[in-house]
Structures are given as structure tokens and as C-alpha cells.
Amino acid sequence: MAGGLASAANIPELRKRITFTLLMLAVYRAGVQIPTPGINGEALASFFDKNASTLFGMFNMFSGGALENFSIFALGIMPYISASIIFQLLTVVVPHLEALKNEGESGRRKITQYTRYATVGLSIIQGLMISIGLEGMAAPVGNEMIVITPGWAFRLMTILTLTTGTAFIMWLGEQMTERGIGNGISLIIFAGIVARMPAAIVNTFKMVGTGEMTLIFLPILLVFMAAIIGVIIFFETAQRRIPIQYAKRVVGRQMYGGQRTHLPLKINMSGVIPPIFASSIMMFPATIGGFIQIDWVQQLTAQLAWGSPLHTLLFVGMIVFFCFFYTAVTFNPVDVAENLKKNGGFVPGIRPGKRTAEFIDKIITRLTVIGAIYVSAVCVLPTILIQKINVPFYFGGTALLIVVGVGLDTLSQIESHSVSRNYDGFLKTGRIKSRR
User: Fold this and answer.
1) In terms of CB atoms within 10 Å, which of 157, 344, 362, 372 comes out highest?
2) Which domain of life is it from (predicted)?
3) 2-434 is classed CATH 3.40.50.1400
4) Residue 436, number of CB atoms within 10 A of its CB
5) What is the pLDDT of residue 432?
6) What separation in angstroms does the CA of 305 have from each of 44, 132, 301?
């Protein structure tokens, strides 16, 4: 991987992709600083200082600090992620969407279009709920109202601003995926978390200075973070390699095949998708409930408070579900077995075709169980640390998993582009080019 990164600057196409991605991320971070009209910034900052360790702090982390500033990107990319989850689930139960998915590229484009429409709808709903909730909220110190001029003018302006901001972020993510490097949506979340980490480090030292955190916990925190990062790197790069043998075949007077290779299967094939999806679902109702002052809504919100037993149980359940669901969507053992059979490949000791598919499916199931346990542990266990010593969310397992996972995935794509480019250059300058 180090060799691929070193040669990235010498490959014009890869250099353009990296530059484009960085420019798009810079545009996103600039938009985070543009506030929505009609908000008392000081009162809102005071409110978030008091609620930094609640669900608002988690939502603020995923939005890259945009919610704390109540910027035009305050909703972040979460409505798009929620819409993507809805349509991925619907493709399993709705025949029309399943047929579109099986149509290939044209069907996928249609589903993507539906997802965009759903994103706008969810953004409108969230924007309305948040604007209504903000009108009844005040700063904990001084009791200043957060909204300067409440009313429908503020609500409509907020809905329009936040929905437009989310649509623009969605477009940025799609452009980065298509014309840049890495997954654009994941990179947006990655950039938001990384951008807020320096402030989180400063706040941690301030907490030590004010006595909110004892000095002895600081080295423990660093060791704990280093251990989590090491575990994440180990599991994200670990593979189960299934040996593949290709049968020998004679074409004319030459013999082909007979070589040995392997089918690499990652322990965590779903990557950072499960915690992002699970966090998105858990934050959507809880965020709306936090702005609706109705008794039964407040009671339900309290039960779903971040770190509560019910929240932890549902969070782990959703992580496990999305680990299995996303793996099933992206990897089909039957297709892999059929492709091996068509190309003369087989697993030693296993019959080609159905038996091979069952064998691969069995291994995938076991790996997914291990991966789901690993992701759940990384995302949930640091909750104890955050609750006990008031550590910022940015040092929790979910944030570290996203940062390390997205970073590894992006570096892997850079290396793949570099290797592919070097291979193309070899073909152009070697003997193959001289054939006419």
C-alpha cells in the first residue's frame, strides 16, 4: 500500500481524482460554517455545551459540527442514508423494486432517483420538526430564546434551507464517488468527524484542567483508543482465504489452467455501513422526539436516550441485522459458485455448483457472525468509558471505526488505481503493444 501511495502523485488521473475529492470536502466544510437565518448563535452554542454528551452530541458528530452551528448542512447526510436503508429493504419485499434492481444499471439508476426523492421528503419532515422544536427552546444560561423571530416565516425558511443543504451534500457525495476516490457519502462523515477531533482534544484537556476528568484517566484513554484502533485495523484487514483450483484444459496444442489461487473473504464484509445505518435509524426518531414537548413522546425519548439499556439493545440488534443484510445484498455465493464452475474452478474436496455455493455460504455466515460481534463490541463498549468519565463522542468506538474503516478503504482504492495504472503502462510499453 505504501508503494501505491508513493506513486499516486506521478499518475495524472489518480492525482486529479484525489484533488477533486479534497476540493469537494473543502466545499462541504465551508458550508458547515454558513448559519441558517433566524438563529441566536450564542444561545444555541450554550445549549450544545450543556448537552454535548447526549444524543445531540452524537448527531452533531455525524454532521461534522453543522448542527451545533445550525448551518445550512445541519441535517447532514443522515436523511440520504435513511432513505437508502428504506429502499434497500424495500427491494427485498416489493416486486417492482426487485425487478428494477435485476434490470442492471438502468434499474439501479431508477432506484437511486427514488432514493433522492425520499431524501428530500425526509429532510422536509425533519426540518419542520426541528424548526418547531427550536422555537420553544432557550439557552440554559440567561434563558435567551434560540429562535430570534418564531413563526411560519422561520419554519419555512428553515425547511427550505436544510432540505437544500442536504440535497447539495447528497450531490457532493455522488460526485466524489463517481469522479473522485473512495465512497463519497462515507468520506463526508469521515471528514466531519476528523474536523471536530482537534476541538474534542482541546475540550478534553480543559476538562482535566477544570477537574471534570482526573489526570490519571488521560493516559488510560490514549491506551484505550490505541487498542481500539489496533483491533479495528486487524479485523478490517483480516481475510479467510478459500483455496481455488483451476482444472487443466487443452486448447489446440497448448494446455491452459491448472493453477492454484484463493477466494479472499473479509471478516467484516459490510465495513462501516452497519454502525452508520444503525446510528441513522436511532437518531431519527430520538432527534424529532427531543423537539416535541409531549409527555408520551418525552417518555419514549427518555427510554431511547443514548447509553440507556433499551438504546444499547436496539443499537446492537440493528448492527447485527445490517451486517447480515448488507453482506447478503453485496455478496451472492450462488453467483460466485457458478462463475467458478464456468471458468473451470473448484474448491478442493467440494463438488462444483450447488455444493460449492453451500460451502461458501456457510463460511460467509460464520464470518458475518464474528464480524457482527466485533462491530457491536467496538461501537458499544466505549459507551461505558464515555458515560463514566464524560469523554467526547469523537473518541468513542463508532467514530474510530468510521475514521479507520473509511481511511483503510480509501487507501485501498488509491492503491488499486495505482496498480491498475502501472499495469496499463506495462502493457503499453511491453511486447503486447507491438502485436498488430
Assistant:
1) 372
2) Bacteria
3) no
4) 3
5) 39
6) 21, 21, 6
